[in-house]
Specification:
alpha/beta; 306 residues; 13% strand; eight-stranded mixed β-sheet
Length: 306
């Protein structure tokens, strides 16, 4: 009997939740997760076995895996008040085109993250979790893992994965490394999540739910772009172009087929800017999350055997 139980456990799928970066647009995914909890009657942390995220998605992954938040608590974490606090301004006037300092000084973000995570270590996470970052001194990607980075705090991991260049300062973590936003590595970290979970659980029976933050589909005039310099490219969202690559999505689709589901859409009326926390934009983000559930809810329940 115990042999049969062990065999069934070994063959059971492991579920990975992958969360993209995208600043305040991460709220669309939170809305989607709230609907998933309602439909399944289960907490997100009970549904998924492994969590991975980039930037704001990395912060959400840490809230879920380390703090065992349910979706409603995660929604409260991303409250308008907390979002406003994370956007405390730099001393310098950033109204000019040639911004010489990060748009935000990072103090507010540190305060919010320290309030929730305290001195909790990443290795104390209740579920395995990975967040992406980039080491600027070594010029290489960095994965912060709960199961191997024993001295890194959860708050530092959250600050580092979301240290978006231009918006926030580079973050130094406990081992001395200087890190920036994981969007430089993989804004959609689903393929990395699949590989890491496969190694962690020692199985290829992995299913991945990947939640995006919307894609800016506004057309760029090819002929005009041939004459653009730095300022023009920044005006036309060069950072968004760099982080919205679908390559990892296509690779994982080829690799595991219907064991992978991607939740995403055009941003539509949602502002492409990652830090537009106006009431109108937040409402549009909320509606985008509801539309995702209408479009992908049934497929999600099927993927997760719910």
């Amino acid at each position: 009997m115990s042999f049969l139980k062990n065999l069934l456990t070994k063959n059971k799928s492991k579920f990975v939740l992958s969360l993209d970066g995208g600043g305040v647009r991460v709220l669309a995914g939170v809305v989607f997760l709230k609907k998933l909890e309602i439909a399944s009657g289960k907490k997100i942390t009970d549904i998924f076995d492994f969590f991975i995220g980039t930037s704001a998605g990395g912060v959400s992954a840490l809230c879920l895996a380390c703090l065992q938040m349910d979706a409603e608590e995660l929604n409260e974490f991303w409250s308008e008040a907390n979002i406003s606090l994370t956007m405390s301004k730099s001393f310098w006037d950033n109204a000019t085109v040639f911004q010489t300092k990060p748009k935000y000084n990072g103090e507010g973000k540190h305060n919010v993250l320290n309030k929730y995570f305290g001195e909790k270590l990443l290795s104390a996470s209740a579920k395995p979790v990975v967040v992406t970052a980039y080491d600027v001194e070594k010029r290489q990607p960095r994965l912060l893992r709960s199961y191997s980075d024993t001295k890194i705090s959860a708050s530092k991991a959250a600050t580092a994965t979301s240290a978006a260049p231009i918006y926030y300062p580079t973050e130094q973590i406990e081992d001395g490394s200087w890190l920036i936003d994981g969007g430089i590595v993989a804004n959609n970290p689903s393929l990395i999540g699949y590989v890491e979970a496969s190694k962690f659980f020692k199985t290829k029976n992995i299913k991945v739910l990947s939640i995006g933050t919307g894609i800016n589909r506004r057309k760029i005039n090819g002929k005009k772009s041939s004459t653009w310099g730095m300022v023009s490219w920044f005006r036309h969202d060069i950072l968004g172009i760099m982080t919205e690559s679908s390559m990892y999505h296509e690779l994982l689709t080829d690799l595991i087929g219907n064991h992978y589901l991607r939740i995403n859409s055009s941003t539509g009326q949602v502002n492409r800017r990652m830090d537009d926390n106006s009431g109108v934009n937040l409402e549009r983000i909320n509606l985008m999350g509801l539309e995702w559930w209408s479009s992908f809810g049934e497929q999600t329940l099927d993927l997760l055997d719910l």
